[in-house]
Design brief:
single chain, 305 residues, alpha/beta, TIM Barrel, 11 helices, lyase, 4-hydroxy-tetrahydrodipicolinate synthase activity, Dihydrodipicolinate synthase family protein
């Protein structure tokens, strides 16, 4: 088994995948983005997640993205962990994607549960799926609980706690938004099992409930601010942390929850000069949507300049 870079606490941006105007991979912009994020205070990177449009890529493109990300991370002054999304609808393909990610240079695999045959995804079927993948994967794996991208399938706390006993299952990204569930998981899992929130708008309450960080799409555009929430929490400056957290809620909702990948790419284009288009069937924002995003990020943009 590959010995990975340590998976520590902190903020992990789920990195976007960039495309040319002809919807071909733009690996140069990907590497530029990773370089830009490197010194912002983040703890590592996630590629091939939902914000990385993994479902829009071929197998070969997935490998290219992971390899390009690894090549850029290798140039940095500190080696940050690289997590790759490897979830698929069959156990066999999930295992193959874990092997592909390892070959391309990832340190960890993030596994969304299979959901296409939703009615047959019993606790037994899902448990056997994760156990088999954990046994076969050359990479340590993190459970990815995101009902919005899994046909409404929401892994419950007891199920995640049960899986946490496996030595090759090392963490969870929970994007359900259920703080009570997150607290229950954090209190019951082994000390070396890492619990991450899945959205910047609940970062502070998640940290207070036992999370060690967040996989936050909003950190693609305002990484320093998202990292600062956690830093203030760790410094026990809770009033400042609460004020900053509150300021992130509306712009985070506009950029990520409301408009998804197109909103995130548009905001990045405005703030950093690159972002580009999503791959179809996703469409770029229309003018009204663009203005709503600009209005939502204007206060936080001016305060961070």
């Amino acid at each position: 088994m590959i010995m990975p870079t340590a998976l520590g606490k902190g903020i992990y941006p789920p990195v976007l995948t960039f495309f040319t105007s002809q919807e071909e991979l733009d690996l140069g912009t990907l590497r530029h983005h990773i370089h830009r994020l490197a010194e912002s205070g983040i703890a590592g990177y996630v590629v091939m997640g939902s914000n990385g449009e993994a479902v829009h890529l071929t197998d070969d493109e997935r490998a290219q993205v992971i390899a390009a990300a690894r090549a850029e991370v290798a140039l940095q002054s500190r080696t940050l962990p690289l997590i790759a999304g490897c979830g698929a609808q069959s156990t066999r393909l999930t295992g193959a994607l874990c092997q592909q990610a390892a070959d391309a240079g990832a340190d960890f695999a993030l596994i969304l549960p299979p959901f296409y045959y939703r009615g047959q995804m019993t606790q037994t079927a899902l448990y056997e799926h994760y156990q088999t993948v954990a046994e076969q994967s050359p990479l340590p794996i993190l459970i990815y609980n995101m009902p919005a991208c899994a046909g409404g399938l929401d892994l419950d706390a007891e199920f995640i706690i049960q899986l946490a006993a496996h030595p090759n299952i090392v963490g969870v990204k929970d994007t359900s938004g259920n703080i009570v569930k997150l607290a229950r998981i954090a209190a019951a899992v082994p000390a070396d099992f890492q619990v991450f929130a899945g959205n910047a708008d609940i970062l502070l309450p998640s940290l207070a409930s036992g999370a060690v960080g967040c996989v936050a799409a909003f950190a693609n555009i305002f990484p320093e601010l998202v990292c600062k929430v956690q830093l203030l929490f760790e410094q026990e400056k809770l009033t400042e942390a609460s004020k900053l957290q509150a300021s992130l809620i509306e712009p985070n909702a506009a950029v990520t929850s409301r408009y998804g990948v197109p909103g995130l790419k548009f905001a990045l284009q405005q703030l950093a000069g690159y972002g580009g288009i999503p791959r179809r069937p996703l469409l770029p924002l229309n003018e009204l949507e663009q203005q709503k995003v600009l209005d939502s990020i204007a206060p936080i943009r001016s305060s961070s300049d």
